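Researcher: If convenient, please comment on what follows.
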Amino acid sequence: MAPLIYEKKTEIPCSAERLFRWHEEPAAFRRLLPPGEPVTILHHDGHVRDGARAVLLVGPRPFRLRWELEHRDYVPDRQFCDVQLRGPFASYRHEHRIIPVDANRSVLHDHVTFTMPLGRLGPWLGRLIILPKFERLFTFRHRITLEALS
């Protein structure tokens, strides 16, 4: 099955370096989780460099799933990626890209590529449930980032 793609871009009124540093702070992972979302952080290495790991419990009780992610493709001031090692998706890759516009502006670009399990039913569920969920999640994340750095 072909992967599904979700993207969101927001211009942030600060340098790419400042935006990237904000994402590198140990508390960034937690502050970008929407309140009320059924997510528990079991473990996070506290940074986004290659090899760092995060382990989450996601979803409502009693259907919680363990989601294990690894950070990869770290490029200082420009990008890092989260790649699923084990979890709810057949495959999942989230690229966090920081694109400089000028000395005082940058673009936060989230690019997620994922494949759903469940064969032919998977893409339909991905479009119906996961893409709208990603839109709510990344709208929240971009708003929090914009407010923090404006």
